[in-house]
């Protein structure tokens, strides 16, 4: 096992009807900015419940945070926090709203150019406003981690950043909030959580037995619940397991003490920045191709993954690895997500465009061994055509 420090201070309040807990979680004297996305939070009644639970506090609102939240939009929220002297943020939504809130929490109290919060990858963040979250979409894990991704539309830059100051104080995880999700978003959530797990598991053996078994359990859980998560939107048990599995996949626990890859995410972010493809869909395009191209350096873990997650024990090593990759691709396709660039109307031109972006963003050394250079990324993208 590798050396590690593990820290996660986010309080989780889980279960149906828990939005009312906001009345004790948000300080009574707080001057709150409530941040949300488009129409869904209002339509589903979530905002009404949140407003009721915050009664008695000064509450301002900032709506319109878009999927893949943009710096350009978030600047408005930063200005509002400063003008109204607000001191507590509450995100109501999915990963985009929570990530956007993290950016505002840091940027509103940062003296320099706000974009530096992201462009420094969080290094300039010395403090942040406190914030909590009411999660409406199980997928990213943002509700229980200190990372975020914001996009600068002007330059097509999708920039991840993180800081110890950017853990939510609390997150409310009410699985019934997810009942109203379009099935496409449910599928996205299943795939995003699956790939968060593989990024921290499908690398090389580190003799980290609890982390491996935990990761395998999460992957098996996601595969097991996927059909029902899509077929029965109001099945409480299924949606509970999806919501908690997605948080566990990226709350730092399975990543402690093990090598981590994240190349699929970095290449995927460029596909979103260029073509506006949903985050999880970019992962479904890149991961099977990456596993194919990296099959030698990931050999031991691919064999372990095949055996333990998919029950693949027959055949030569090459055959078992082929089968493990095929099962991964088939899982993504089974939830309705195409796994090739051609499925999104993209061809060779996209390979060149993504490579140019990776070069421009200093993404020439990716993967758990930092040896996915631009040539390897090219091979991955070619294999994803
Ligand atoms: O805008 P509204 O109307 O609210 O609609 C949203 C949005 O269109 C809708 N939605 C959310 N909850 C709903 C709902 N519709 C009906 N009922 C509900 N209960 O869903 C759409 C997508 O929302 P979004 O927040 O964009 O999705 P997701 O949670 O998948 O977040 C994606 C973003 O998170 C980043 C991604 O890059 C992307 O920008 N990520 C953040 C990570 C982190 N902070 O750790 C890690 C991830 O790898 C990822 O990069
Ligand atoms: Zn992700």
UniProtKB/TrEMBL annotation:
Coiled-coil ranges from the UniProt annotation: none
Annotated Fe-containing alcohol dehydrogenase-like C-terminal domain residues: 187-384
Similarity comment text for this entry: Belongs to the iron-containing alcohol dehydrogenase family.
GO molecular function: alcohol dehydrogenase (NADP+) activity; butanol dehydrogenase (NAD+) activity; metal ion binding; methylglyoxal reductase (NADPH) (acetol producing) activity
InterPro entries according to UniProt: ADH_Fe/GldA, ADH_Fe_C, ADH_Fe_CS, BDH-like
Cellular component aspect of the GO annotation: cytosol
UniProtKB keywords: Oxidoreductase
Ranges where the Alcohol dehydrogenase iron-type/glycerol dehydrogenase GldA domain occurs: 9-175
Keyword Nucleotidyltransferase among UniProt keywords: no
Entries under CDD domains matching the protein: BDH
Statement: the UniProt record of this protein carries the keyword Cell wall biogenesis/degradation: no
Organism: Rugamonas brunnea
Requisite cofactors: Fe cation
SUPFAM superfamilies: Dehydroquinate synthase-like (SSF56796)
Pfam (any one): Fe-ADH
Protein name in the entry: Iron-containing alcohol dehydrogenase
